[in-house]
Amino acid sequence: MPVPKDGPLLDDAAGRLIRPYTVSGGRTRPTAALDLLSLVMATGTVPKGRNLGPEHVLALGLCDGPTSVAEIAAHLRLPAVVTKVLLSDLVDCGAVTTRAPRCLDTPTDRSLLEAVLDGLRRRL
Predict the structure, then answer these.
(1) What PANTHER family does the entry give (predicted)?
(2) Residue 70 three-state SS
């Protein structure tokens, strides 16, 4: 059976083949403190002794470089809380490391944010 163009978890006609709560094993609370802006990066360690699902593998594949939790959730097409649970599993087995977003003492430049928003709108 060919893999749907959106990946193994989605089907063009049926939509999502697996419910989000199934992906997280029914868990709704991550074990690691993760923010939507937390940066996640693969450590290169192969998870051993853990039964990780295909969603874990997909999430790990997105962490080659520092990637935000929000971006990973968007690529996986999963709710942020489910993505946080998956990433917590990967943190617990040493496959990824996380870093909290840096807090700047200076306020964000509004014109910079508006320029980013305009650029995103043009791409979508």
Answers:
(1) DUF742 DOMAIN-CONTAINING PROTEIN
(2) helix
